[in-house]
Design a protein that fits this description.
The structure holds 2 protein chains of 2 kinds.
Chain A: H1 5-14, E1 19-22, E2 29-30, E3 46-49, E4 53-62, E5 72-79, E6 84-87, E7 102-110, E8 113-120
Antiparallel strand pairs in A: 1-2, 1-3, 4-5, 4-7, 5-6, 7-8
Chain B: H1 11-15, E1 22-33, H2 40-54, E2 64-67, H3 76-83, E3 89-91, H4 99-102, H5 104-113, E4 118-125, H6 134-144, H7 159-173, H8 177-191, H9 205-209, E5 213-215, E6 218-219, E7 228-237, H10 238-241, E8 249-258, H11 274-285, E9 294-297, H12 302-311, H13 320-324, E10 336-337, H14 342-346, H15 353-365, E11 378-385, E12 390-397
Parallel strand pairs in B: 2-3, 2-4, 9-10, 9-11
Antiparallel strand pairs in B: 1-7, 1-8, 4-7, 5-6, 8-12, 11-12
Helix pairs in contact in B: 2-3, 8-12
The chains are: A mainly beta, B alpha/beta.
């Protein structure tokens, strides 16, 4: 059975691994998961583990009622591999997430499915 | 992150022969604002009937149809049933709110080729009054139009996507929340001159900034209305339009560009594919932003207007905030923008594009009442769809521009 790019990505995530694709032809990393390289059109994209370090490209604090959990962060993070993903930066107040913040990914689970979340890192130090 | 795409189409060469060959011969809105008891189809049919009558035609003269719906994927078929027409040209392209502007160029080709003689572009939505609510609609769309790399993080779409673009624009160019608010305040000032506009009470920059937060940096007053409304236009070949009762509004240029679906896949959040659609539409028209008497741009959120004024060439990238500051796009400002009050204050029933077109037609015909511009020969109309995903630009002009 052929595993769709999304199914493969999600299965890795469910197992606690953050994987992105890499194009053997043009050497670009690729995200979101897909069948063809969006840069050169090649197929045969390979799965590689993402390093997990990234930089906040943009961020927003989403307003939510306190009894529903309160405000939360949604961010776009540029991974050091050169791909962008939507995620959340947690471990700090949503308002404290700023563009340019260095962040480190980890896998969390929600409703039994893995998802990528980030926490801030201090340059040159541990998260 | 990823590279901004480049187009190799020479629109001036490829599309220039169609410049001015097709005109908008009829235009109408129906039920804008709140229309309790109405449904999408009723609003569409009433607007279509009024637009066809405005063109001096009968429904049996309509042999081309372009329409789409937020909810129904096979929308052209029930529309054909309800209108009782037998079109030889049908376009159901659905790329969100820009669709009705993107419907122009294919319709022009069909008219020019003789495939049809009169194309009705039409839309109706009872989004405000519908019993099938927004919550159910959003839930259904998660299955119909999956975005598995965004939904798990609970972005409230579309507002979160536009908030992320606004935050990035502020970071890169020093655009301020007050600049964003200027867009909403200008739209309201225009709306106060338009009896059809839904929100007409006074609005200040402070009101926008202190309104209920949605997704930072945007408040509820940075976001478009949720209204009901129907809109329709009729396109014919230019020669025929000149024999019809209303002053023809010529389509001088049109182009559409799509670079991404999801906001997370947008190459650069401060440059939209309007940079491409705008350049190609202006190339077809042989004109530039400097030649435009007005701009009717899809203002689903305040950041849209700033992005599109930059991408369409009214100012340099990053200078949109300064361009709108100090009432720059309000009545009496440096450029007339969204003279009906736009999606922010006039009407926004799910998709706004057709209403931007209709406002341009009304201005170019000189029938815009208290908000009528003294100089009104050229207009750029710009549509946006999805979350900064699809962009379509049209350049319209009066007989003097041919």
């Amino acid at each position: 059975m052929h595993l769709s790019a999304h199914t493969h990505y999600q299965a890795e995530l469910d197992a606690g691994r953050i994987c992105i694709q890499h194009c053997p032809q043009c050497q670009s990393h690729v995200f979101t998961p897909r069948e063809l390289c969006p840069h050169c059109g090649a197929s045969g994209l390979r799965w590689v583990r993402a390093g997990g370090l990234g930089t906040v490209y943009s961020t927003s604090t989403i307003a939510r009622k306190v009894d529903a959990g309160g405000h939360y962060n949604v961010a776009l993070v540029d991974l050091d591999e050169g791909v962008r993903m939507m995620s959340r930066v947690e471990g700090v107040a949503p308002e404290a997430v700023v563009i340019g913040l260095r962040v480190l990914a980890h896998v969390a689970h929600k409703d039994g499915r893995g998802l990528v979340l980030f926490t801030p890192v201090r340059e040159g130090g541990a998260p | 992150m990823s590279r901004v795409p480049q187009s190799h189409l020479d629109a001036a060469a490829v599309n220039r022969p169609l410049r001015g060959r097709v005109a908008i011969a009829g235009a109408a809105t129906y039920g804008c604002g709140e229309s309790p008891g109405m449904d999408d189809m009723t609003l569409l049919v009433r607007a279509a009937q009024a637009a066809v009558a405005d063109a001096g035609l009968t429904m049996q003269d309509i042999d081309g149809l372009a329409t789409c719906s937020v909810n129904a994927s096979m929308w052209t078929m029930p529309v054909i049933e309800h209108l009782g027409i037998n079109p030889t040209y049908v376009d159901g392209t659905m790329i969100g709110g820009s669709s009705f502007i993107a419907h122009l160029l294919p319709a022009m080709r069909a008219l020019e080729a003789g495939q049809c003689k009169a194309v009705l572009v039409c839309y109706g939505s009872a989004q405000r009054s519908a019993t099938f609510g927004r919550k159910e609609s959003v839930a259904a769309r998660r299955f119909m139009d999956p975005q598995p790399y965004e939904y798990p993080y609970e972005p409230v779409l579309p507002v979160t996507a536009y908030a992320l673009a606004a935050a990035r624009h502020m970071h890169e160019f020093g655009t301020t929340r007050a600049h964003l608010a200027e867009v909403a305040v200008a739209a309201r000032a225009w709306a106060q001159l338009n009896p059809e506009a839904f929100m007409r009470d006074a609005l200040t920059i402070e009101d926008v900034l202190s309104a209920r937060p949605m997704a930072s940096p945007l408040t509820v007053r940075d976001c478009c209305l949720v209204t009901d409304g129907g809109g329709a236009i009729v396109l014919t070949r230019a020669e025929r339009a000149r024999d019809l009762p209303r002053p023809p509004v010529y389509v001088l240029g049109n182009a559409t560009a799509i670079w991404n679906r999801q906001i997370s896949c947008m190459p650069d959040l401060t440059t939209t594919s309007a940079a491409q659609s705008g350049a190609q539409a202006f190339a077809m028209a042989g004109m530039s932003a400097a030649d435009m008497d007005m701009a009717q741009v899809y203002d689903a959120f305040t950041i849209n207007t700033i992005l599109f004024l930059e991408d369409l060439g009214f100012c340099a990238k990053g200078e949109g905030g300064a361009f709108v500051a100090g009432g720059g796009i309000a009545p009496g400002g440096r450029l007339a923008v969204n003279t009906n009050g736009g999606g922010l204050s006039c009407v926004h029933p799910g998709m706004y594009g057709i209403f931007a077109l209709i406002e341009a037609v009304r201005q170019l015909r000189g029938e815009a009442g208290a908000r009528q511009l003294s100089q009104h020969h050229t207009a750029v109309v710009h549509g946006n769809g999805g979350t900064l995903s699809s962009q379509s630009t049209a350049v319209l002009g009066t007989t003097e521009t041919l």
